[in-house]
Amino acid sequence: MKTPTISTLIFFLFTVFSCSCAASADGNVHGFLLCLKEEFQNYSSISSLVYTPINSSYQSVLDFSIRNKRFMSDSTPKPLVIITPEYEYQVAPIIYCAKHNQLQIRTRSGGHDFEGLSYVSEVPFVIIDLLNFSEITVDAEQKTAWLGAGATIGMLYYNIAIKSPKLAFPAGFSPTVGVGGHFSGGGWGVLLRKYGLAADNVIDARIVDVNGRILDRKSMGEDLFWAIRGGGGSSFGVILAWKVRLVDVPETVTVFTIYRDLDQNATQLIHRWQYVAPNFDEDLFLRIVARRNVSEGGRMTIRAAFNSVFLGGVDRLLAVMQEKFPELGLVRDDCIEMSWIQSILYNTGFPIDSLEPLLDRYQPDVGYYKGKSDYVQEPMPISGFEGVWRLFYEPEGSEAEFLLTPYGGKMAEIPDNATPFPHRAGYLYKVHHMVFWEAKDAHNAHKYISWIRRLYRYVTPYVTKSPRGAYFNYRDLDIGVNNNEGPISIATARVWGAKYFNKNFNRLVQVKTRVDPKNFFRDEQSIPPRRWWTGKEDI
Ligand SMILES: Cc1cc2nc3c(=O)[nH]c(=O)nc-3n(C[C@H](O)[C@H](O)[C@H](O)COP(=O)(O)OP(=O)(O)OC[C@H]3O[C@@H](n4cnc5c(N)ncnc54)[C@H](O)[C@@H]3O)c2cc1C
Ligand SMILES: *[C@@H]1O[C@H](CO)[C@@H](O)[C@H](O)[C@H]1NC(C)=O
Ligand SMILES: *[C@@H]1O[C@H](CO)[C@@H](O)[C@H](O)[C@H]1NC(C)=O
Ligand SMILES: *[C@@H]1O[C@H](CO)[C@@H](O)[C@H](O)[C@H]1NC(C)=O
Ligand SMILES: *[C@@H]1O[C@H](CO)[C@@H](O)[C@H](O)[C@H]1NC(C)=O
Ligand SMILES: *[C@@H]1O[C@H](CO)[C@@H](O)[C@H](O)[C@H]1NC(C)=O
């Protein structure tokens, strides 16, 4: 055998190296990292924030904010690079370098996206993970707060509570939800009937656009500011921070959770709830979480949890319930008076005597799930609910949930084009369908997913139609997706876009066309721009 000469070796290395360079993804990553080195004069100051698969911590940084185990498998496409910036000025060079190396960006704040869009992509991509943008400043006197996009709602609640027991913010339940995704997609919680969505209470924002400019409300313009309060952030840039208006809550609120099985008239009570809950006093929020359960006699049943936070004391609550919903049979012993922040802990299932758990963004028990959503404008008949229960009795329904959130109150007062979120006046409640499964069933995920699709088909006659409504923050790729590469057809995007945004979809397209005409910020459900070279609405 001939020993290779230096020149054949060099030729060999050159071929391998240049081939791997040309082989898109690897080459792009190489170019991307070189570009970052050029963009940051002092690269050493950020190299510790840049993770590629060779770094031993890459996997743990990736997994840390994954909130759905469905997207934590070996077959889930992985980012080529994860960057966890610490300062605002570090974001623009990342966008610049990604753009110039044909890499897509996924921005992640809290990682709760139901379909994992903040950390999964079918095309070569990098993650900007904002978990370290979590600074919060609360001004209790002005009743405002600035918060980094990577902060969690638990951190926000904590920081408000240590300043004042009478201030709050209308956002969601789970403390680990990130404000970057949550506020840009709407954000609802127990205060929605009194104060609307989180997005309704955003008064300023900071965003990096596709050209690397850092813009605030004034410099971004009212149309972009409108778009990012409900239209999702990922179509428009990287949101850095929000300024929000805090809202008043009484020093004492009252909570209760009471359960009713089918043999305690659960179905009749849920049916009745549709007529009363959207019309209650704004201070009363009463939602329903229905699950399968086993009754005392050992029979399978449906158990509905009636879960409430009332902005006031127990006496007034009992009077309201006695007048408006006596059938539920609420009694004083079911009710607990507590502070607002304790009600957050209570609804999360934490002990109510310590605020510290609100700060913890680590979530130990991440599950496998698929969620979908619907809106209801006309009460469902009893028979409709009975059909839902029959599906819940099937094997895949064992861990499923049927969650009903009442609208009305402030939600009905806000015009449906005030923000991109269109489901306002005339909407009685939102339905959230959820199915969970265990690790041992990971390979059977398709069974659970087809079960929830069957449930979704089953409720079709009872929910909003043309378009069927859906909640953007309960991301569901079943309702339609964009193509991953090439221009995105507006007509195709409208299939899912109208469900989330109804008529507001058109204005979102207009904003997108102005701020990101070449469609750099894109994903399976991002707003497409109108194509500038044809001016055509549809392709
Ligand atoms: C356990 C759990 C509980 C939930 N509870 C509620 C609830 O009570 N009420 C409610 O309304 N919703 C709730 N949700 C849904 C939640 O509001 C959405 O999943 C929301 O998008 C999560 O935001 P995130 O930052 O954690 O998610 P991420 O996965 O980080 O982001 C979600 C989307 O927003 C984009 N995005 C994130 N940050 C930015 C940014 N800074 N700039 C631009 N784009 C960005 C991402 O790219 C992605 O497209 C819950 C979800 C889970 C998993
Ligand atoms: C580069 O950044 C590091 C880390 O922030 C810092 O310690 C160092 O002084 C910087 N060097 C220069 C030349 O700015
Ligand atoms: C990843 O590895 C590179 C190369 O060794 C190093 O420069 C960088 O600092 C590492 N990143 C982290 C987050 O440790
Ligand atoms: C970023 O946040 C993580 C999680 O809170 C923390 O462990 C890490 O030290 C932070 N990194 C920096 C550079 O601040
Ligand atoms: C169920 O409803 C019926 C009539 O509507 C009533 O007679 C009965 O007492 C109720 N049962 C319970 C357990 O509330
Ligand atoms: C049944 O419901 C109760 C709450 O009422 C709950 O503690 C229990 O875990 C449930 N059982 C099942 C099998 O879901």
Question: Could you name the key traits of this structure?
Answer:
17 helices; binds 2-acetamido-2-deoxy-beta-D-glucopyranose; binds flavin-adenine dinucleotide; single chain; Uridine Diphospho-n-acetylenolpyruvylglucosamine Reductase, domain 3; 539 residues; 18 strands; 30% helix; Vanillyl-alcohol Oxidase, Chain A, domain 3; 5-stranded antiparallel beta sheet; globular; Uridine Diphospho-n-acetylenolpyruvylglucosamine Reductase, domain 2; 4 domains; alpha+beta
Describe what you observe in this structure.
- Belongs to the oxygen-dependent FAD-linked oxidoreductase family.
- Residues 75-249 form the FAD-binding PCMH-type domain.
- Keywords: Alkaloid metabolism, Disulfide bond, FAD, Flavoprotein, Glycoprotein, Signal.
- It holds the Pfam family FAD_binding_4.
- The protein is α+β, with helices and mostly antiparallel strands and 539 residues long.
- It has four domains: 6-129, Uridine Diphospho-n-acetylenolpyruvylglucosamine Reductase, domain 2, CATH 3.30.43.10; 136-248, Uridine Diphospho-n-acetylenolpyruvylglucosamine Reductase, domain 3 (2-Layer Sandwich); 253-338 and 367-462, Vanillyl-alcohol Oxidase, Chain A, domain 3 (3-Layer(aba) Sandwich); 480-532, no CATH class.
- It has helices at 6-22, 24-39, 58-64, 91-99, 153-161, 179-184, 192-195, 217-220, 222-227, 266-276, 314-324, 340-348, 382-392, 410-413, 445-458, 490-501, 504-515; strands at 50-51, 81-83, 104-108, 125-129, 136-139, 144-148, 167-168, 202-208, 214-215, 238-245, 247-248, 253-261, 284-294, 300-310, 336-338, 368-376, 401-406, 429-437.
- The strands form four sheets. A seven-stranded antiparallel sheet has the order 15-12-14-13-17-18-16.
- Strand 8 (202-208) and strand 9 (214-215) form a beta hairpin.
- Helix 2 (24-39) runs antiparallel to helix 4 (91-99).
- The longest helix has 17 residues, at 6-22.
- It starts with 5 loop residues before the first helix and ends in a 24-residue tail after the last helix.
- Bound molecules: flavin-adenine dinucleotide and 2-acetamido-2-deoxy-beta-D-glucopyranose (5 copies).
